[in-house]
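pls design
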């Protein structure tokens, strides 16, 4: 069962979509470790689709936070509310600074992307601008995380290269005899 989970493209895609959406709604559940773990066992051909799935699922639910930006501010308490108010004063009426902060937060996570998303919604940033800058930032972040195991050589070898045909035949036939030896013996 473990091999099925690690090598099923559909299962890996579902994991990315579920965790991407959930992490977007909850400020304390990061999707980053999940993306790195999935990318470490995913075949190379699946990496770019995983970036797209992670970005789309994350941003589709993050748009809900953007839409409820004013209400999200009311739910913040303590330091989060102070940060929100401080950044809100700095960015209010400055659309270029809002876009830049949103993009940088999307890529780096600093300032916290959850707070910046709610802030942009409360400052009435146009939805199109939010989607363009936030999605671009998150796509860069997720692509970096998903391709990181490949670049550092931490991906599993089984997921990266198919077994040689002779080895597959031996495994299927259950012995060390080659396919030609089996056929010739009949």
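designed seq:
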């Amino acid at each position: 069962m473990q091999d099925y989970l690690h090598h099923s493209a559909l299962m890996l895609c579902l994991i990315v979509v579920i965790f991407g959406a959930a992490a977007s709604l909850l400020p304390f559940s990061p999707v980053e470790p999940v993306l790195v773990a999935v990318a470490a066992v995913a075949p190379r051909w699946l990496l770019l689709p995983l970036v797209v799935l992670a970005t789309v699922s994350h941003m589709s639910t993050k748009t809900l936070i953007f839409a409820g930006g004013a209400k999200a501010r009311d739910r913040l308490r303590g330091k989060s509310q102070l940060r929100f108010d401080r950044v809100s004063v700095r960015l209010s009426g400055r659309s270029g600074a809002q876009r830049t902060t949103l993009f940088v937060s999307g890529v780096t996570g600093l300032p916290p992307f959850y707070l910046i998303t709610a802030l942009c919604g409360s400052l009435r940033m146009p939805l199109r601008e939010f989607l363009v800058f936030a999605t671009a930032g998150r796509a860069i972040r997720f692509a970096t995380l998903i391709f990181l195991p490949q670049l550092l050589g931490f991906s599993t070898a089984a997921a990266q290269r198919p077994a040689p045909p002779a080895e597959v035949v031996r495994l299927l036939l259950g012995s060390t005899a080659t396919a030609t030896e089996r056929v010739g013996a009949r």
